[in-house]
Amino acid sequence: MLTYDLPAERIAMHPLSERDASKLLVWRGSEVPILHTTFRRVPELLTPESMLVVNQTRVIAARLTMRKPTGGLVEVLVTDPVAPSTDPAVVLASRSASVWRCLIGGRNVLPGMVLTSDHGSLTITVRERSSTEGIVELSWEGGATLAEVIEHLGTIPLPPYIQREVEQADEERYQTIYASENGSVAAPTAGLHFTQRVMDDVAARGIDLARVTLHVGLGTFRPVEAHELKDHVMHSERIGITRTNLEHLARATERGAMITAVGTTSIRTLESVFLWGARLMRDGSMEACDIAVGQWDAFDDTLTRIDRATAMRCVATWMDEHDLSTLWGTTQLMIAPGCRVSSVDALITNFHQPGNTLLALIAGFVGEAHWRTIYDAALENDYRFLSYGDSSLLFRLGYSG
Fold first, then answer.
1. CATH top-level class for 63-153?
2. Are 383 and 23 in contact (CB under 8 A)?
3. Strand locations in 56-163, DSSP E?
4. pTM (two decimals)
5. What are the C-alpha distances in Å from 169 to residues 9, 41, 194, 315, 397?
6. Does this chain's domain 8-59+177-395 share its CATH topology with 63-153?
7. Which residues, listed in sequence order, are joined to residue 58 by a DSSP beta bridge?
8. pLDDT tens digits, residue range 333-370?
9. What is the pLDDT of residues 253-266, one digit of tens each?
């Protein structure tokens, strides 16, 4: 199992005062010494005229404190919309009732119970509950959108390992500076280090920027409880890319540019888009206008051996054929040892929890023989871990660009 000892004191409970002052560990392969520097140097460490890909999702104030009919307080953390749409952007912009999957914290919360808010008209009706998970219906009065309602009543859902109350600073610091698409219940934390100064330096070096969307769900934090990774069932998350951003990506791949993903969410999105293109190449055009990528697609060599540029251009052509300005879909993709990463050459990422799928992704990207060397170096050099922790720049195993 992919795990290591993480002392509690190494988990960052607060962000640094300056985003880009965090430490940066750079790993270019086992033959090159690990470099320890600061995040502000990222632009000079990337290849000029390469491409940087960021996840523009925005964390919503998904943690809601509600009151039971008996007067007791209940915490409801809405995670994924079920109806009238599974698209968070659509549901959050709606002024009508909607149904969500959620986590419920509190005793004696039963199906049929109606929960109310103390400071607004929001009511939450519990439809189903099993242990901490549930299905609820949200309704309210006044004509506001759901996004406006929860922005007023809710709080940012910090990860469970940050064991403190949400502070005012978290409202800004637990969002990337380029967040724009409402829908996540957790931040794409690799992007938290970027400042406008770093972004300006990226542009000055001729490094292109593309944006994708992956709305992070709570499944990201769930440990792998199966004895073997092959028996773990990956959570499904919503992904999207506009035709304009896909065109930037296709052109970059065609000219052989180095592609650097900012975060595990960006790499899972890019790899999913590539695999969809590879499937189109292998199987022919599909009528569905939403992509759906399976858990083990990155282990299928009939897909991964297809050329990156060809697969990306195929997706662009397919979007044109279906008159799509944005490609949406779901991915259940697992990246882990034994798979082949085809879409990305370098990865900017934080240091992840022991025994979860994000650590498996790192091992799959740099090679199972090398991830522990990287993490040992981070521990030995006093790096801060997890969401508010320090960062790394890792190059794909075998990349020689």
1. mainly beta
2. yes
3. 57-59, 63-67, 73-83, 98-105, 114-116, 123-130, 133-139
4. 0.94
5. 21, 25, 16, 40, 38
6. no
7. 182
8. 999 999 999 999 999 999 999 988 999 999 999 999 99
9. 999 999 999 999 99
